[in-house]
Design brief:
Number of helices: 0
Strand content: 35-45%
Structural class: mainly beta
Order of helices and strands: EEEEEEEEEE
Distance between the termini: 38 Å
C-alpha cells in the first residue's frame, strides 16, 4: 500500500496560514504524483491540488487557486501544501494520497480512484 502520513493541521483564524506536510518512510515520493484532498463535515471528499511526478506540474481546484501552493522537498521526502488567506470554508480533514497510475494531468480524479488513505490532518478556520 502506498500509504502516506499527513501533519500540520490546526486551528487558525480567517486570513491565516498553515503548511501541511505529507511524507512516508515506505517509498520515495519523487517517483509518484501526489494529490491533496479535503473533506468537510457532511460533504464528499474533494480533490484540492496535485503535483506531477516528473516535471513538477501542478493543479489546483478553483476555490484555492492563488491561495494554496503545492511543492516538493525531495531531500526530506515530503510534499507540502502551503495554505494562505484561509477561509472558514477551507475547514476539514486534509489527506494526501497517490496511486501508481496517477499522473496529475490537469485535474485530480475522484477520491474513489485512490485506494490508500492515511488518517488525515484537521484544519479548522474559525475566529
Amino acid at each position: 500500500q502506498l500509504q502516506l502520513v499527513e501533519s500540520g493541521g490546526g486551528l487558525v483564524q480567517p486570513g491565516g496560514s498553515l503548511r501541511l506536510s505529507c511524507t512516508t518512510s515506505a517509498f520515495t515520493l519523487d517517483s509518484h504524483a501526489i494529490a491533496w484532498f479535503r473533506q468537510a463535515p457532511g460533504k464528499e471528499r474533494e480533490g484540492v491540488s496535485c503535483i506531477s511526478r516528473n516535471d513538477g506540474a501542478t493543479y489546483y481546484t478553483d476555490s484555492v487557486k492563488g491561495r494554496f501552493t503545492i511543492s516538493r522537498d525531495n531531500a526530506k521526502n515530503t510534499v507540502y501544501l502551503q495554505m494562505n488567506s484561509l477561509k472558514p470554508e477551507d475547514t476539514g480533514n486534509y489527506y494526501c494520497t497517490t496511486d501508481r497510475h496517477f499522473h496529475c494531468s490537469g485535474y485530480v480524479p475522484n477520491w474513489i480512484y485512490f485506494a490508500s488513505w492515511g488518517q488525515g490532518t484537521r484544519v479548522t478556520v474559525s475566529s
